[in-house]
Design brief:
By secondary structure, the protein is an alpha/beta fold. Helices cover 38% and strands 15% of the residues. Bound molecules: 4-nitrophenyl phosphate. 4-nitrophenyl phosphate is lined by residues 9-15, 46, 121, 123.
């Protein structure tokens, strides 16, 4: 059975591309590549068509992951039926998702299920914020994968 997982943040250039790359890497390491369809999207339109932020590409590369091929897109109505689980990086994006679709087939949830709950938006901060974001996302993705049988 294929598990279809969509990661969502605001711009789809910082956090959710990292989540897509990190989760894909964990799935590959677990030998479960063919069991998953993994994607990411944003609730905001500003960066559609762009590659991930260079700071995300850089932190991913330093952990052995190449996310440079990704292209930002917005969440679409079809995503709520096509994906099994839609994973928001923070409460604002969770609320945005809930307001886009009133009757999703997908389970809509936060990535983190323990404080700080939100993966903070690193866009307007310095590069050190991306290391924290990477660690938070990896820990959330490890738990998420272990919960998908
Ligand atoms: P992301 O970060 O949601 O993690 O991709 C952001 C990227 C861009 C903007 C905000 C957050 N922006 O305002 O353009």
């Amino acid at each position: 059975m294929t598990h279809k997982v969509l990661f969502v943040c605001l711009g789809n250039i910082c956090r959710s591309p990292l989540a897509e790359g990190i989760f894909s890497g964990l799935v590959d390491e677990a030998g479960r590549t063919s069991d998953f369809l993994i994607d990411s999207a944003g609730t905001g339109p500003w960066h559609v068509g762009n590659p991930p932020d260079p700071r995300s590409v850089d932190i991913a590369a330093r952990h052995g992951l190449d996310i440079s091929h990704q292209q930002a897109r917005t969440v679409t109505a079809g995503d709520f039926d096509r994906f099994d689980v839609i994973v928001a990086m923070d409460g604002d994006n969770l609320a945005a998702l809930a307001s886009i679709s009133k009757t999703p087939r997908a389970e809509i949830r936060l990535l983190l299920n323990a404080p700080p709950m939100d993966v903070p938006d690193p866009y307007f901060g310095g590069p050190e914020g991306f290391e924290d974001v990477f660690r938070l996302i990896r820990s959330g993705c490890e738990k998420l994968l272990s919960g998908i049988a």
